[in-house]
Every structure is written in C-alpha cells, then in structure tokens.
Amino acid sequence: MSKPVTLEPASSQNLNINSQLDFSKRLQAVAGRVNAASNIDEIMLEVSKDICTLFNADRLTIYTISEDKSYIISRVKTGLDSFQDLKLPITEQSIAGFAGLNKKIVNVADVYDRGELVKLSSQLHFLKEVDKRTGYRTKQMLAAPILNVGDNELIGIVQVINNKEDKPFSQIVVAGISEICQILAVAFKQRQKQQYLARSKYDHLISDSIISAAELEMAARTAREKGGDLEDVLIGDFQIKPSQIGEALSLYFKVPYEPYRADRIKPMEILRNLKRDFVESNQWLPINDTKEGLIVLALDPERIKVLRMVNQVFPKHKIIYTVCTHPEFKATLDLFYGGLILKFQRAIVIHW
Prior knowledge:
352 residues, GMP Synthetase, Chain A, domain 3, 16 helices, three-stranded mixed β-sheet
C-alpha cells in the first residue's frame, strides 16, 4: 500500500522550488570553478571555501586516500589551519572512515549522541581530541565518499561540519554533496592523467597554435579574478572564435561539436515539460529528436553522463551527446525560451 501524500500549501511549494533552484545555480557555479582549476591542489584550495559556503557549513575537510589505500589524509581543512594533517584509517571507528569503508553518505545530527552513532555501527565513535584541544564543539557532520569514475573505487572524502542553522543538514545538501563528489571524482581523474599541466578542455587550442599555454593560464586567472567564465574571457579578451573553442571541446569530450544556429527549430514536444530554470542550472538541453536518437547539447557531457540525469528524464530514448561553448548554449536557450538573444548572437558572429 502506498503512503499517503501530504500536500504542502502552494506558497510553501514555491518557496521550496525556488530554494532548490537557487541552490542548484550556486552548485553549478562551484562546479565551474572546479572545472576551471588547472590541478588538484588548486581545486582543493580555491574551491573548499566555496563548498563550505554552498552548504552553509562552519567547517570543511577534504581527504584523499593514501597510496596503500589503508587510510585517508586531509588535503584541505577550513578552520583547522594550525593543526597537522589528519590521518584516519578506513574503518568504522570514525565517521569519515565509515563513509569511506561503506562508500555511503553519512549525515549525523549530533556526533556526541552515542545512540545515533550506534545505529550506524557499534564500532563508530566521534574522535573528540581536536574539540578538546580547541574548545570547538562539533555537532552536525556530513561525510560523503568521492568514488572513482568507472570502477567506483574510493579516492577521497568530503566532510562538512556544523550547519550554521544548527540543525541536521537537509536533503538538498545531501543531494548536493553527492553531486560535488561526482564532480570532484571526474576532475581528479582528468587531472591525474597529466604529467606537466593538468589536462584542460582547451589543450587543443594550444596544440593547434591558437593560443599559448601562458596565455591560457592568464585567461584562466583572469576568469577566476573576475568570477566569470573562462570561455567568455577567451572570446572577449583573446579573440578566440567560438568554433575554435567548440572543436577543442569536441576533441576533449569525444563528442560532436554543435555550433549555434539561429534558424534552429524549437523541439516543442521534447521541451514541453522542461523549464528554462531547470535546463539552465543543469546545463544540458535536448535540441532534436532524430531516428538515430535524442540529440542533447551539454556544456560538460562527461559529467552529465555520470549523473545519468538525461536518462532519467528520457528513459526510452537513445541519447546522443553534443557539446558547445557557454555563449552558444546561452544563445540556444534564448532561442528556445526567449531572452537577450541578440546580445549573444552578436558576440558569436563578431568572433566567428
């Protein structure tokens, strides 16, 4: 027998939806910073505070796994800069270790509540030593495993501490930390393949002599300082054509590049239940339903494939992913949903 459904007032539903959309947009901004980082250390240092702010948490620790895979070691700790790196065995004796061993998210309302911990494992304890040394009172804790793309092997842990609202972390935050871990897993895998510089979506711009490595690094730094998008800087400041960036993205993601077309016909049937806010925050857009499959435009096809969100929305379709630049994605959104399309058309045409 199905459980009865309790209907919330319309105003409450709208507030909840708006909160989720706002959270999703801020999460995508953090994801963008992860993707713009050139190496793992940069991801750790520059994104940790953003993650902490996103989850409205007081502190955050990101662990990576040791070479022998027997323990985790802290790579970044917000609020604990004066202490040495934390090393925890991957066992059920600590909350982070438990999350790593069982490869599951752990959301604890009060780490000092022995009864709550025992429900997870009789061996689970909160390590109080740091609290004793600092006078800090840890209460809420959310720990999530970073699992390698493909083989699901543990490569790290994200742990956030103390909700500033002094209540358990919400399901929106739990879902958010799950996505952050997946984004970090993809980013770590991509960066670890590199020997000199972290593999970049724009490497082929360098190999094709369109831009130098130093100029690309300068553009990335400018984007970070401005809090903007790297592709906007490449197009606006460095006069790189969207088609050149698109071809580099195509080679990186190994999917076709789909340029912006002003005469593209809006696929009314497949967009019927997809609102602009949802599409814009999740950064994928179905653009055509063909005999070969559903053509989906995405800014990061690899991340979208991992999350399998498109498959959940269109379970009966074969999905064919394509990629484009940020300005082209925005222009296509405006073409389908309405907006400041002329602005983006001009930007694309001028630099074509």
